[in-house]
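In the previous chapter we treated chains in isolation. Here, by contrast, the input contains two separate entities that must be folded as one system, with a combined length of 230 residues.
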Amino acid sequence: QSALTQPASVSGSPGQSITISCTGTSSDVGSYNLVSWYQQHPGKAPKLIIYAGNKRPSGVSNHFSGSKSGNTASLTISGLQAEDEADYYCCSFADRNTWVFGGGTKVTVL
Amino acid sequence: QVQLVQSGAEVKKPGASVKVSCKASGYTFTDYYIHWVRQAPGQGLEWMGWVNPNSGDTNSAQSFQGRVTLTRDTSISTAYMELNRMTSDDTAIYYCARVPGGFNYYLDYWGQGTLVIVSS
């Protein structure tokens, strides 16, 4: 059970849009529309921002959005803000009722 | 309000075991699965496993099978993660997190994390 593949870092200027990819296999992302995304600021616990591929929990800004194509899920942050600077992790339900996380992506706001 | 409160930091020697607790409040403990996730220093999140507080059923990642035990005590709304035969590679923050009821597959509330240091 290998970790999902995410880019190590993505950067953008305030107001820009960025997209973080999360590539899995037919045993996880490709077979289940059950990808969630988490934001983690330094020293803090992760926070849920997207679930079931493209749904936002109550209270999460609508400048976060999710999508999926084949074995790859994506998180888009539109209108990048300083407070979006954090680490982002994807997570997918997988075969044998297990879960798997991505390696994480550090987002830098220039 | 929903809260998951974990036990305090631990320092263990190589070969030892650790047992981390996660006390739930603000909801019906037996209605929501509890998952365990760890994060080594400067590294990403790693899924460890889950426990169904209602039935006691568990499942864990292959990399931890045989070394991790997930249990719960419904009388005190607390889940436990015990990790055996630890090495320095097990130094990490260990989190518990809740999955909402129904056919949901995401972690909506997280504990504050428990730092476990393995050092001789």
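The interface with chain A takes residues 35, 37, 44-47, 50, 59, 61-63, 95, 97, 104-108, 110-113 of chain B (CB under 8 Å). Chain B has a mean pLDDT of 96. Compare these points with the single-chain example from earlier in the chapter.
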